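Class, carefully examine what follows:
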Amino acid sequence: MRKVFNWAARVCLLIYLVMVVAGFFVDVPYGWTWLPLGLWVLIGFGVNRRAAGVQEHPVTVSDAEAVEVAAPVTGRWRALNSPASRVPSHGTRAYGQTYAIDIVAEPAEGGRPGFGWWPLVRRSEAFPAFGADLLAVADATVVRADDRQRDHLSRTSWLALVYFFTVEAVVRSLGGARRVIGNHVVLDLGDGTYALYAHLKRGSLAVRPGDRVRTGQLLGRCGNSGNSTEPHVHFQLMDSADLNCAHGTPFTWRGVGVPCNGRTFEAAGTAVTAPGA
């Protein structure tokens, strides 16, 4: 049922965009243009949430037992869009993101390019997170692995951010989960728990579906693919490998916890080689 609502929302959005473009060439009644947009909002943010059986009141991490796993990175990082600060952390429960977290590498204070008016965009290599190792948070089986999408320029200026929200994010949402999360890995941790790593670097995967991995083993590298404004790690636990019907699962990182928005933390790890290597 949730998939049906997701597809219906995309169709409404597509119809809206087609009507807007058609309006430059033919006489489209102004009021009709807003009908599919209103339906998209209704389905995507109202009906879809109820169909998924989601409660409307805010949920906190303490409402459910968090699954303890290792941190997916090493070094000094800063937390953004954290479930320790609000739930759902990304403002939506779609694609199992209820308890998702974003983290950016910040090896030293001010070591990451800031946000402002200029330059309009930056290359991914300007950010310390780009190319950082992503590690398995538990002994697991790889069930999904995709690194074919390109890494794009940053969206860390005001004008680029306007473009991101008004054009890029809308177009990517029409492409479904794969276009939103970009290059990614999904691990089966067992007991109905799955881990998602999103926005990986193109061509960086060190694993493939069916591989068994050990805690701390290299999976791939941080990138800037999909719905991403700068190179960062998007991590979440969920109850299904299918993002279209997954529900988020609370997590805690061993030795770190769940850092709140803006908090920097150090993650220690031990390099682990692939089984049989």
Observations:
- The first helix runs from residue 2 to 22.
- Confidence is low (pLDDT under 50) at residues 47-63.
- Helices lie at 2-22, 30-51, 158-174, 177-181.
